[in-house]
Amino acid sequence: MVNLRSQAKKKVAEANKENEDVVAKKAKLEKFVSEKVKTKVPKVIKPDPECPVLGFKVYQKNGRIYDALLNQTNISMNNNKFYLLQVLESEKGPKTYKLWYRWGRVGYKGQTNLREMSLQGAKKEFEEKFHAKTNNVFGEKFQKFQGKYDLIPVDYSRQDEEERRDDLEDESVPCTLDPRVKNVIDLISDLKAMEKHLKRLHFDTNRTPLGCILKDQIKVGYKILSKIEKRIIGKSFGGEFHALVSDYYTKIPHYFGMRPPSSLQSLEDIKDELSLLEALVQAEAIVDHTKKEIKKINPSDRNYQRLNCKLEPISNKHKTFKMIEKYLKNTHGPTHKDYKMKVKNVFELEKEGTFNTGIDNHQLLWHGSRLLNWFGILLKGLQIAPPEAPITGHMFGKGIYFADCASKSANYCDAKHGDIGFLLLSQVALGAPQELTKAKYEASNLPEGVHSTKGIGQMEPDQKKSEYITLDGTKVKIPLGKIVEKEKTDEFELLYNEYVVYSREQVKLRYLVEIEFEVNQ
Questions:
Q1: For this protein, what reaction is catalysed (predicted)?
Q2: Are residues 510 and 376 in the same domain?
Q3: Residue 401 and residue 356: Cα distance in Å, rounded?
């Protein structure tokens, strides 16, 4: 009798556990579906622009969108291909459905197939094709399989935001900004220029429009690049290396035309790809994904408001303007003879943020960057490379880099003759720096009591000619003496000084300097 009771209890316990497992699985599935639906999906998702239909939209039901952009790169086989699948639904009148495929080499229109079908038939074939190409069940959490296509994630909410922005932005509405400020905003928020820049870096903007590549995708790109970097340093170029390179191009779609994809076999190649990923981060900043506006607004005003950073033009007769002109002129390095710089405008910056006033030794130092990075810089401040990014290009570890030589920073503007570029002057709390004469990639691991790194160069501004100003009650050094060469320069790897801090709280943005470049022809 006791035995029968224990058996019954055991069966009840097993049944309860089975029910709990079912409930848990259901909850997990509901959570996954809800997370997918959290991103606001527009009611109307447009078909592929290459699809020759009018009055159709992508079919979606209960958060499941019958649209898939697949990508596969295999550098060993010279494969760099895409596959696009869509089920389309008529927007008006009696419901009709079409199945659209487009496939081929990245950067080309490729082959197409468009057929009218029943809804059930179109969904069934779509799901079968998706499984054949990826080895995944459509609608379930995606997992990449070796030798199969990868799914490129798409942020559909951007389509709604772009349309809303188009509705709200109106160039006929007068701009309220100072013309000098408006010019800056228009220069740094130029999406067409950003798109051209990304194309020069071989990014496929046709299939992955600006702002539609997700942050997680960029993060994965950084991680794969770090693995590739380690194998380059270790000279390990076997099958695993080629698989990593193929995986990177699959995650971050590139356009190479009919040429084989680059095999990424040098640290210079890694630097180029880092430039691409950094540009994608900046594109994310420029592309609008903010709260809904309630009234029409001039596009320049709207972009300025998004920065949450005040730009106040300084008169060219003001002593601050004159001081910055002097700083720029005096600290143009003698080895940088191929261009000249002229200060066009200076803007005082005012942006909220935490600044660590508990660290002393404040200096006003230069930072340069290419034109299309400035929207992100003014929006988010100067950033430190993420942990998953490769160390290549970071001579003294991952931090925020500055110079006391204006032309050293200007080299990062990547400017051509007649171009406008920008340099930033920041108040940097250096505290007690560690002084280094050569590269140290782990320099960010600061000893106790040390707050920054100073890479010592062969040349620097004459320290006896430095000036001082007071900013918000703090004495700040401006090393604006003319560049002089030090004695015994053989031990220094750098030509000019570099300053690196590893906390954003040691930096306060002070002045944005608009520069006209005159490059020797």
A1: NAD(+) + (ADP-D-ribosyl)n-acceptor = nicotinamide + (ADP-D-ribosyl)n+1-acceptor + H(+)
A2: yes
A3: 17
518 as an active site residue: the answer is no
Evaluate whether 371 touches 193 at the Cβ level (below 8 Å): yes
Paired tokens of 442: 């782990």
CATH code for the domain in which residue 316 is found: 3.90.228.10
Amino acid identity, position 2: V
**3-class state of residue 193 by DSSP:** helix
Residues 178/273, Cβ–Cβ less than 8 Å: no
Is residue 250 domain-shared with residue 315, that is, in the same domain?
A: no
Q: Which of 162, 229, 284, 498 is catalytic?
A: 498
**Residue 422 DSSP SS3:** strand
For the record, the structure tokens of 403 come out as: 């110079």
Say if residues 498 and 455 touch (Cβ distance below 8 Å): yes
Is residue 21 in some structural domain? no
Looking at residue 255, its amino acid is Y
pLDDT tens track for 304-326: 999 999 999 999 999 999 999 99
pTM given for the model: 0.77
Give the pair of three-digit tokens for residue 308: 């949450």
Residues 118 and 173 reside in one and the same domain: no
| CA distance linking residue 281 with residue 211, whole number of Å | 9
